[in-house]
Amino acid sequence: MKQKLQVGIIGATGMVGQRFLLLLENHPWFEVTVLAASKQSAGKPYEDAIKDRWKMSVPIPEKYKQMMVEDGEQIDLISQKVDFIFCAISLDKAATKALEEAYAKAEIPVISNNSANRYVEDVPMLIPEINGHHIAVIDSQKKRLGTKRGFIVVKPNCSIQSYVPPLSALMAFEPETILACTYQAISGSGKSFKECPEILDNVIPFIPGEEEKSEQEPHKIWGSVQNGKIVNSNSPLITTQCLRVPVSDGHLAAVYVNFKKKPTKEEILEALNHYEFNPLAKNLPSSPEKFLCYMEEENRPQTKLDRNFGKGMGITIGRLRADTVFDYKFVCLSHNTLRGAAGGGVLSAEYLVATGYLFAKSL
């Protein structure tokens, strides 16, 4: 790319916003020109606004420390400085939806980490390797919004990105019933161990709203584009349980599945190891060298050992075996703040550049 796109991060002081900063520090296609957050943080250098809330394992990059934080609701001002935004701001759902639509109507594309627009029929919810073709509905969305270049694309919930990719590789065998139990890191709540003392020596068997998202969102990922809208799939039937566990990063899932066309174990391994995902999602700056990786060791994947596979953008799978109630069961793992949050957002933006939907305002 000859000219880097100028990008703003709305919600730059939160955990996902911080992860965006690290991923974009030396990005070959994107340059951060705006850091924005709440009114309380606005008007301060980023280092002062963040104070003791920096949660990453490496220091704040020098290039961001003295950048002045903007008020994320000052859309007219911010839209003059950016080609698009990543939105990870913490507002209620109605306010988030309104803010993202306002940016889009100001002709600023929005790559959202939030859930507010995930169920809008003409808003793609992307895992580029799996459903990149859903971006076709952006043209219909622009007509609805009355825009020429402004639109919204969302990233799915972090928990489903451990088990939806391997299940997507098995769709030829027609999964009918799925049980997924997810064991989710505390960073999924935007907290560190210091901020979440109740998790130490403990498991919390409830995460508000998580099971509903985990059961509903895969159907949009697996849906089809019809008449400018995404029509959700009707199957397979999915039920989930979501637990918060005392690990810093990484969501692990125990998955049980029945198939209409029951495969052999060897056929499942072949499908996982040679999944032909969307070729347009390969060779992007944030693409993992290998999307799905089956691990033969009987005690893998492990959250601490394997969450950073593929720089945190790959999915690891293991322990595939026959089950006494379901046809098969296995475990799988994804990094929730990389593949599941900021990294997935950056990859989606790269995919939109590669497919011609995201470009500099000057073009």
Automatic annotation (TrEMBL):
UniProt xrefs under CDD domains? ASADH_C_arch_fung_like (cd18130), ScASADH_like_N (cd02315)
Top-rank lineage group of the source organism: Bacteria
EC number(s) from the headed UniProt entry: 1.2.1.11
Alphabetized UniProt keyword annotations: NADP, Oxidoreductase
Q: Is Membrane tagged as a keyword? A: no
Q: Name one GO molecular function term.
A: protein dimerization activity
Q: Which residues form the Semialdehyde dehydrogenase NAD-binding domain?
A: 6-138
Show the Gene3D superfamilies listed in the entry.
Dihydrodipicolinate Reductase, domain 2, NAD(P)-binding Rossmann-like Domain
Specify whether Isomerase is a keyword of the entry. no
Q: Which residues form the active site?
A: C158 (acyl-thioester intermediate), H251 (proton acceptor)
Please name one Pfam family that this protein belongs to. Answer: Semialdhyde_dhC
- Gene Ontology terms: biological process: methionine biosynthetic process; threonine biosynthetic process
For the protein in the UniProt heading, the enzyme class is oxidoreductase
Family indicated by similarity: Belongs to the aspartate-semialdehyde dehydrogenase family.
Its name, as the record gives it, is: Aspartate-semialdehyde dehydrogenase
Species this protein is from: Cellulosilyticum lentocellum (strain ATCC 49066 / DSM 5427 / NCIMB 11756 / RHM5) (Clostridium lentocellum)
